[in-house]
Write a structure and sequence with these properties.
This protein is mostly beta strands and about 120 residues long. It has strands at about 5, 10-15, 20-25, 30-40, 45-50, 55-60, 65-70, 75-80, 90-100, 105-110, 110-115.
Length: about 120
């Protein structure tokens, strides 16, 4: 069973920064991609950012220029650096790993809370 363990959430003031980490029990290879999603109160889960094994990244328009996703292949870990945080960024952030070739699996982490105070 694949495990995704997130860390790094917390409380921060508007304009502050946080870095989330997601350690996977499997390696990021050409078959899969990892990413971050978030779900705010009363909202649907939405894409924040994704990264493929080759390093190709994709971001939601709302976080472009403020957030950066990266990975450390040696540690099977993906990071989300969040800068210039806004209250609307407050949400539970979930790590995701999915099969992008055959679409046979998708895994989620347990989620980590990010709260941005105004």
């Amino acid at each position: 069973q694949v495990q995704l363990v997130e860390s790094g959430g917390g409380l921060v003031q508007t304009g502050g920064s946080l870095r989330l980490s997601c350690a996977a029990s499997v390696s990021i290879d050409s078959l899969n991609a990892m990413g971050w999603y978030r779900q705010g109160p009363g909202k649907q889960r939405e894409l924040v950012a994704t990264i493929t094994s080759s390093g190709h990244t994709n971001y939601a328009d709302s976080v472009k220029g403020r957030f950066a996703i990266s990975k450390n292949d040696a540690k099977n870990t993906v990071y989300l650096q969040m800068n210039s945080l806004k209250p609307e960024d407050s949400a539970v952030y979930y790590c995701n790993l999915r099969d992008v070739v055959f679409r046979q699996y998708e895994y989620w982490g347990q989620g980590t809370q990010v709260t941005v105070s105004s």
